[in-house]
Specification:
With 51 residues, the protein is mainly α. The chain has helices at 2-12, 19-50.
Length: 51
Amino acid sequence: MRFEFFIATRYLRAKRRQAVIGVITAISIAGVAAGVASLVIALAINNGFRQ
């Protein structure tokens, strides 16, 4: 698990010349997380109505 954490922090911590890349990475991670959360919620609601 430490290797994955190292890679994640390496990409999230941007240097000054790569600040835009860090911002874009954070926005894309937040977008993917929001999409996955909305799909999970939609499936949970759909399964609730079926039962």
